[in-house]
Every structure is written in C-alpha cells, then in structure tokens.
Design goal:
With 248 residues, the chain is of the alpha/beta class. It is built from eight helices and 15 strands. The chain has two domains: 117 residues, Nucleotidyltransferase, domain 5 (2-Layer Sandwich), CATH 3.30.420; 105 residues, ATPase, nucleotide binding domain (Nucleotidyltransferase, domain 5). Strands 1, 2, 3, 4, 5 and 8 form a six-stranded mixed β-sheet that branches. Helix 1 packs across helix 2 and helix 3 crosses helix 8. The two termini are 24 Å apart.
Length: 248
C-alpha cells in the first residue's frame, strides 16, 4: 500500500503512523520513540528510519512536523529545538536518510491543515485561523483551504508583550490564572487577530482544548471561535496530508 506517513516531532517524543487520507485518521496504531538528546537533525533522521521500519505497509510520502519556521524544506528558526536545525535542508536530509519522499512542515501549519480538511473547519470558506494553545501559541492561516505558511502569530506584540508570554496555556499554569482570568487575556489576543485579519473562524487546539467549555464561552469576540476536533492526532494527520500533496 502507498499510504502516506505522518510524524510529529516534539521535544520529548517522535510519534508517527500511516494515515488513511480518506478517513483522516491513523491507518495503524501510532508508535513513539523518545527524542534523541541532543536532538540534532542527523540523530532525528536515524529515529525516522527506525520508526518507518516498523510500518512496512506504508510506502508513500512522509510528512514531519517541526516546531519552527520552514521555507521550502529548509528550517530557519529553532525556538524549542537544537540550534543546529537553523539553515538545515530537512527535506533533503530526511529524504536521503530514509529513501522516501519527505516533506517537513511547521507543526501548527500541519494541525491547521488537518482541522480544515477533517476537523472543526470542514467546509468553511474564507479565512480560518487555527491556534494551538500550549507552551507557546502556534498558528495556521488557511484561506479557502490553501495554507499560508509560517504565520507565527503567537509572537505578535500585544500590549507591549510577546503574545504567547501572557496568553499561552503555559502562562495560565505558571501564573495560576483562573479560566476566567485567562479568558480575559485570550479576549485581548483574539481581538488583536480580528483587527489584523478579519477572519471567518477561529479554531482553538492544543491539549487544553479538551476543556474548551471552561474558557472559550468567556472569550468575548465577534468572530466565531470553536475547539479543534482532531486534538493530538492533528499533527500526524496534517503532516501526512501535506506530504501527499507535494509539500510547499
């Protein structure tokens, strides 16, 4: 079978599975290998070889998420990964290491693609902004199904602060904010995005989205805002989808 394969590269684990693009779901149980330390590109490439070797049924293209800016397969930022990634042509490195057609994509962009194709934004026209609220704030801009990559809207300056330093879920946990207090900060953040982009829909992902009923109704904005549906599957599914369509 020529199923595409999605890989979610995180700080503690590298997770992957073949993906059924008809269903928008895993075609086999996801496998996880601890992220090597240091997580330099060459070490991660060896993990990819091992991970792919566990799934003989998948022979299609491979997509891998990276927590950084990716331009045409070249990683150009490394906020939460080893600095050696900066300037690395990850598409070329991983394609050579695995013997497969590999395409690297920003992790939030992968989640955004998955939510638009299979999740909370299916069938929605116009501009959809997908945000992931976690350690930082990831973002994806998708216009009529077309990804505008590397938006990095978590790093906007809002009220003199880097937005994610005050509005990410990590800020809520670090400062012991109530959901209502956090929702006030999210209101400020999403109103800023409204002013800049006038989107048709916000989709909110990240692990905390499972508790969306506790904070999203308190976010006071004009734009419709809904929780993500794919949750921890979004990165792998979106990466496989991105790779199957030839990357960027």
């Amino acid at each position: 079978m020529d199923l595409p394969f999605g890989i979610d590269f995180g700080g503690s684990g590298i997770k992957g599975a073949p993906v059924d693009l008809e269903a928008g779901d895993f075609a086999a149980e996801r496998q996880r290998i601890p992220t090597p330390q240091p997580s330099i590109p060459e070490a991660v490439a060896q993990v990819l070889v091992e991970l792919l070797g566990r799934f003989s049924s998948s022979t299609g293209p491979v997509g891998i998420t990276v927590p950084g800016v990716v331009r045409h397969g070249v990683v150009s930022s490394a906020a939460n990964i080893d600095d050696s990634w900066i300037g690395t042509d990850a598409d070329a490195l991983f394609t050579e290491a695995t013997g497969r057609d590999v395409h690297v994509v920003n992790d939030a962009d992968a989640a955004g693609l998955a939510e638009v194709r299979y999740g909370a934004a299916v069938g929605r026209k116009g501009l959809v902004i997908v945000t992931t609220l976690g350690t930082g704030i990831g973002s994806a801009l998708v216009m009529d199904g077309l990804l505008v990559p590397n938006s990095e809207l978590g790093h906007l300056e809002v009220d003199g602060h880097n937005a994610e330093s005050r509005a990410a879920n990590s800020a809520r946990e670090r400062e012991g904010l109530t959901m209502a207090e956090w929702a006030d900060r999210l209101t400020t953040y999403y109103r800023t995005l409204e002013k800049l982009f006038s989107p048709d829909l916000f989709v909110v992902g990240g692990g905390v989205s499972k508790d969306a009923d506790q904070f999203l109704p308190l976010v006071d904005i004009e734009t419709e805002i809904v929780p993500a549906k794919l949750r921890n599957k979004a990165g792998i599914v979106g990466a496989a989808l991105y790779a199957s369509e030839g990357g960027g």
